[in-house]
Structures are given as structure tokens and as C-alpha cells.
Amino acid sequence: MSTLQSLGSERPHRAEAVVDLAAIRHNVATLRARAENGAQLMTIVKADGYGHGMIPVARAAREAGADWIGAAVLEEALALRDAGDTGPIFCWLTTPGEPLEDAIAAGIDLSAAAPWEIDELVAGVTDRPARVHLKIDSGLSRGGAVPEEWPALIRAALRAQQAGRIEIKGIWSHLASSDEPKSPANEAQLATFTEAIEVAESFGVDAEFKHLANSGATLALPETHFNLVRPGVATYGLSPFGHALPSAELGLRPAMTLKARYAMVKRVPAGAGVSYGLTWTAPRPSTLGLIPLGYGDGLPRHASNGAPIQSGGERRTIVGRICMDQCVVNLEDDQAAAGDEVVLFGPGADGEPTVDDWADAAGTINYEIVTRLGSRIPRRYIDSGR
Ligand SMILES: Cc1ncc(COP(=O)(O)O)c(C=O)c1O
Hints:
Oligomer: single chain
CATH class of the largest domain: Alpha Beta
Shape: elongated
Keywords: Isomerase, Pyridoxal phosphate
CATH superfamily of the largest domain: Alanine racemase
Strand content: 15-25%
Pathway: Amino-acid biosynthesis; D-alanine biosynthesis; D-alanine from L-alanine: step 1/1
Number of helices: 11
Strand order of the largest sheet: 11-14-17-16-15-18-10-1-19
Protein name: Alanine racemase
Bound molecules: pyridoxal-5'-phosphate
GO molecular function, one term: alanine racemase activity
Family: Belongs to the alanine racemase family.
Number of domains: 2
Distance between the termini: 27 Å
CATH architecture of the largest domain: Alpha-Beta Barrel
Radius of gyration: 23 Å
């Protein structure tokens, strides 16, 4: 989860991911304003803040009004507490035998989807009851109790609550298709979720929070907001709808710019093959730039022979295969030198490629492009608003 420290403040870097915390704050405030009927906002910072850096993002989100911070796994949630976050934190992905007692003692809200998970929570309680959100599988078929097993989960949770070991704080679920707001799957999941709440209430559950909406639903499905929304990717200024509805049209600002400096620039003759397998051949004498980033840094190898970059104000293309530590760009006849800056992606405002352009080149989604960036790339935080 850590990123490499900068190699001395003034020295030029091989590469860096610049994260604008003002953009994070802007996006959090925008999402909060989109939450219907005063619903609270949980900013999702799992997977090192989708590659942007979990702790700085969580701090910026709190400053911009995030009521909750959401983390997938226990290590993340505990790291947030260790970093001094004292507000509500929700963490939903645990496996049997994990040290739940640490999270319970730290007042972290946890999820349960089966009676055995309630038992594990009860066993982890020391001085304060565990704060629990019961998860219904409303149709994603990932985590959550299927509707047939929902009553057994509720009964187990109520027994533990009556014994003073847990507090049922929430009922929640997760959507499969909010990136396609018109999909009938959304309506079906909403109906299943609503029914699960009714069943729980008929058993006597009085949960303060009900939550279902991720970014797509926060932006496009207000009927799913209940009283808490959980956007992730939109926090980072990326659209959950990809090119179909770009972030600018949603009022979001992409927060990350990925830059590097050429390790080498050289001229090759027509016919020169490039990179492993020689999958690209220079059709004419060409200038090539060597970017010191590769799949070891999280660039997708699938984006070989096609990913765009910006160099000297021009759009150019990565040619040949992306290697572990490096890749090659066809600079055509550009004037460039070792040490010059190359922008792989950014907000797009200055003509640079966007995360979505990289996602297209790799046949994936914007989420994956930023999240997989590795710890070899230092993150540098700027604050364009201050
Ligand atoms: C349970 C849960 N809630 C919320 C989110 C945020 O989703 P998104 O990034 O699509 O907004 C995720 C991420 O996948 C998730 O797993």
C-alpha cells in the first residue's frame, strides 16, 4: 500500500503520478450535492484510493464533507484509524479468522452476510458492541445473504443484539449494472433490496442506515440513494459510464496525471523492429522515445501498440510491446531529448490523453488503469485550490 518515497525533493523524477487534492474535494462536494434527500456520503478509498493514495484522499474527502469513509479490507480500515481518522468507517470484506477484534475495538463498522459471520463478530467483542451492517444479495451474486437465507441472518443478528454484543447499524447491498442506468437489473435489485428492508423491519430490526448506490447510481439513479450513498470511482473524477458520459459532463474533475521523463530518445532507420517480438516496424526513419514505465508499474500490457501519450504538445502512440519497466513511443520527426517530459494521461484539458483513452487502448475500464498503478511510481500531491 505504500508508494516509494521521492528520491530527494529537487531532483527530477523518472516518473510520477500527480494527484490534485482540490479535484478530489471538488468531486466529493459534487457527489454530496447529488445525494437525494440529504443522504449521507461514504467516499470509497479501497485499493489505495483507486491508486491515488488512500490516506491523502480520505483526508481530502473528509474536508469536503464525506460523512463516511469506505474500505474493502480490514488492513485498509485500520490504517485509516492509525492515520488519525476518527469518523465513521465502513469495511465489508473479511474472511474467517481475521482479527475482527481490532476493528471492533477501533469502532469500525463491519458487514455480515451469514449467521457464522455474526458468531465471529460476537467472538471478537471485548468492551464495546460490534457495529454491523447486514448485507443482502439483491442480485449481484457476489457477497450478501440470498433472500432465502436473509431471515436466518436477521434472527442471528437480533439474538446477538439482544445479548448486547452487536448493534445493527445498517442494511446494505451492491448493484451490478449501475453503469447502465436503464438496465432492468437496477429496478430488480432495488425491489429485492426494498423487500429485504421490509422483512428485516417486520422482524424488529431498526437499522439507521440503508445503502445501495455506488458512483453510477449516485449520479443516475436517485431512487437508490436511501440515506447513504457509496461512490468510489467518481471521487477520482472518473466517469462510471466511460466515454458514454464523460466526467466533464458530470461536473467531475479527473484528479490524476501520470508523467514520466524519457530515458532515451533516438533515431532508427525504416525497417527497425521495436520491443519484444518486434511487433511494430518503423515504416520510415523515425524518432523513438523510451518511457521508463512498464507493466511492472501497472501499465497494461494489453495497451501495447496503441496507447496514446502527449509529448511536446503532440499526441503520439506507444509502439511495440509494453515491457516490464519500459515502453517505446513513436515520436515520428519530433524534436525531443532524454529527460523531456511525457504525459501518459491526465484530465484531458490540455489535449493530453485521458484515463478513458488508456482504458480503450487496453480493452478495460478506467477503474483498472488508475488502480493498478504500482508502488514504484511516487504519488505527488498538489492542491490547485490553495
Ligand atoms: C461495496 C462497494 N461499494 C461501493 C463501491 C464503489 O463503486 P464505484 O467505484 O463504482 O462507485 C464499490 C466498488 O466496487 C464496492 O465494492
